[in-house]
Amino acid sequence: MEKDFLLVELFELYKGLLTEKQRETFSLHYLYDLSLAEIAEQDGTARQSVHTIIKQVKAKLIEFEDTLHLKERFDEINAISDEIENKGLSDRLKEIIGK
Amino acid sequence: MEKDFLLVELFELYKGLLTEKQRETFSLHYLYDLSLAEIAEQDGTARQSVHTIIKQVKAKLIEFEDTLHLKERFDEINAISDEIENKGLSDRLKEIIGK
User: Fold this and answer.
1) Which of A1, A36, B50, B97 is the most buried (most CB within 10 A)?
2) Of B73, B78, B82, which to mutate for an interface test with A (greatest number of A Cβ within 10 Å)?
3) Which residues of chain A does B97 touch, with a Cβ-Cβ cutoff of 8 Å?
4) Does the ipTM exceed 0.85?
5) Using CA atoms, how far apart are residues A70 and A97, in angstroms rounded to an integer?
6) pTM of the model
7) Does A67 touch chain B (CB under 8 A)?
């Protein structure tokens, strides 16, 4: 559950780097809670194919984070923004990092 | 020249998303100032192949920025960090965005 939440966070950061098909499959499973079997039925494909796409997306999201460290950096920036006394600057920072 | 500087900035941000070959070719041309012909000679390949790789890398860097807006976001964060009175927080911000 903890891990799924991390994946959804990484998805929000990096979805623009995924293909349309990868984005759609990930969303249906992780954001709309459809099972792999339900997605397969809807797509007219095999459950195994859906499983493969989900596995690929997970690996890509983790690879993107290992490369660009956006979640790590944005979490740190968010913590810093909480320490900034000037509310205007703090809010602008949060907006840039989507918090 | 202005435009080359932008490409080098984008390269620093996104090089982790490129292949080893793309990184090497871009570096030789833009960071080490080798001509396409010189790179081609060094690689034992045609000038046209080097040109194609450079073109692909440029397109990818622009696509990454259009998708993730890291240069845009980090430039804004840098401007905000200049306005923060607490030097410790300002310096931490700059470190996170590599400025």
Assistant:
1) B50
2) B73
3) 73
4) yes
5) 9
6) 0.91
7) yes
State percent of chain B over pLDDT 90: 95
The answer to whether the CB atoms of A93 and B85 lie below 8 A apart is no
Helix %, strand %, coil % of chain A (to 5): 85, 0, 15
Q: What is the enclosing helix (H) or strand (E) of A57?
A: helix A47-68
Distances (CA, A) of B49 to A66, B26, B53, B60: 30, 13, 6, 17
B91–A contact, CB cutoff 8 A: no
At A67, give phi and psi (nearest 5°). -90, -50
Q: Which two tokens stand for residue A90?
A: 């703090």
Section A86-90 average pLDDT = 95
